[in-house]
Design brief:
single chain, about 725 residues, alpha/beta, Leucine-rich Repeat Variant, Rossmann fold, three-stranded mixed β-sheet, 28 helices, about 45% helix, globular, Protein SERAC1, ARM-type_fold, ARM-like
Amino acid sequence: MRKLKQKEEDEKKWVSVIINPIGKWWKSIKHSVAWRLLNIAQTGSQHDRLKAVRQLACIDHLKDWDFRHLAQICDARTAISLARSGADSRWFVPVHMRGCIKNPKLVLADFHDMLARLRPNSCVDNFFNKYFPQQYPHEGIDEFFTQDQASSLSSQDTDMLKEIIAFLHHITKEEAVAKQILNEGGLTHLMELRKIFADDNETLSTLCKVMANISLVDTSVEHFFASGWIGALAEWMKCPDLRLQVISAKTMANLDHDDPNRVEYPPNVYPLHPRLRTRAKPKADIIFIHGLLGGVFITWRQKDRNPTELGLYGKNAFYTSETDDVFLVGEQRRGNSRIFKNVNNNNNANNGKNGNGATNNTVKKEKMTDPILKAAKKEKNKTLGISDTATLELVEALQNTAELESDWEVVHPDVPLKAGENCCGEFSVPGNEWQNQDNCEDYTNCWPMEWLPDDYPNTRIIGIDYTSAVTEWSANFTKYCPCEKGQGQIDVRATSLLDRLSKSDIGNERPVVWIGHSMGGILTKLMLMKAIDDPDPKVNQIAKSTSSILFLGTPHRGSSIAKWKQHMQMILSPSIEVKEMEEGAPKLIAMHNRFMDCLNTCFRNVKVVTIAEGAPTMLTSFKFPLRIVTEDSARIDYGDFYVLKDDHLSLSKPIFRQSFLYQRVLKVIEDSLQEVEGPTEKVELPGTKFKVEAIKTPASGSLVDKVRSIFAAVPQISINFPNAHCEQSKRD
């Protein structure tokens, strides 16, 4: 036994003598490779730096202490490059005092002092008169809380901090103010707000928009790096909330001065794709512009299976999650109603326990997670309304069939009700290419961001966002200062958006595709007409590079809903946007006539596709349907024209990828890319294209007609019988 043990120990010694040096050598190789790549990324030429950063972003096998050591010797430029390359989050130094939250009252005092140093400023003076009548007292209170401690935060202080964030988003659009806030250490105070509102995605989204405005300052890179914001933004870029993903990606793109394809994104312009670095320039720019009460993650979400409703008093729904926001529909409305119902029940229970119903001024901060705009799961509650048992069994069998054969032809569920005379489109797909997504539980809050990159990854997709309102009561243009009065006018808004789009290098040697919903189409027309007359080459290239325009429910001749102001002006008090959208307004008609002249002259090579609504929209305030944009107002007698069976809100929301609306968008993009790359041969399958016409079938009691009557209950599926009637007549 002793000899056996001695033999085993000798073998272990030999293993340790041979293996351990190899292991140490391998570890040193890994460390030396990372160190050498980091050194190249910091000191090499731009070409070498780009290659080194791509290799560093692939490293994920090091220990935590190795990443911490490398992060401490990493500089600002390399850290930003790694963040925009999708590197591991351990590459970034953690936030200073991450586990400690500064007392909100001290944070308020810090912002009071910082904003006071910005005076004299008309915006700041107006804000002080309204929200800061006197100095905030902050003596005799604790400076920091730990995350384990229950931090007491009054509702008044919470609302005040949110107002400050919204006001900072307003004033930081001016570069001089943003630069002054940056030089006075404002990023450190903003980091404290990130800790306080860590569970409030809506407030964090507004805070991230403030960071995006400050990132446009040329000297902001080192400030972002020193304050720990690079790591925080890199974390938000991988957050499941789409709002934080997009806005943080925009901020990092503004900070990345080492990117050879660098583009700045000013306010109102959001890069939906790509959000990371790319090695090649995009081949096309696709711009999405929403309409009234819309937003990037509101207008362009997937269609909800339940009927949608429109509220007249809804706010701009880009980041709202309040219970009184009647404009929220679908998944967001259901999610918000569940959350706030629980909160109200808890509040009622607490009031009952207090007995007298009194409420304390200082309340414990609710650990309530803000709704996340991400790919959610949809409820499966669809039932087939078919009474015949045999037909019901056949339909259920077809829905559960894994794959159809090529002799089947599946019609898109949103096939147009009518179309123009010469309009042809892909209204169906062969059965072997059909993907049954009717029971699919995947849901997207932004299909341009999640669907289009799969079909056209070499394009740049941009979303335009702006605030709007239907009534003056819900308008917030003059909430913070009088300087925003009149910003709701279409001409003012189009001029501002065009100037900011030109700074994003739109249409630089690549085609531009415009997709506008409702008033977004009006803004598209006005911006193009302004761009064609602008002497600035960056602005003029936007008009010259325009290849296609897709209008979705655009009121070219106005909307009848705007005339309500004549009958209900005292109740509704319509906003500036609604007044300018009045049906038959002279300014709107003159703008449309000039645009039609441009289509026949300078825009004669631009392809236009118009889609109108074929169903009324349900108004929640009055509980009756209303046709917001009529077919006559949406028609422009140029290009392709379709009328879908959807309402005004659903025109921008495809039900799934294999729908007519989404496939028509893909066709518009494909045609624009082919103009640059040249035509390619395409094999068309028989029966996949046809015109929308009424088909008359002979009245007979044949077996073929009976089968046709059965499949009439399933509008998505049809069978081709090319010579069925001919053969039947021959037999007769």
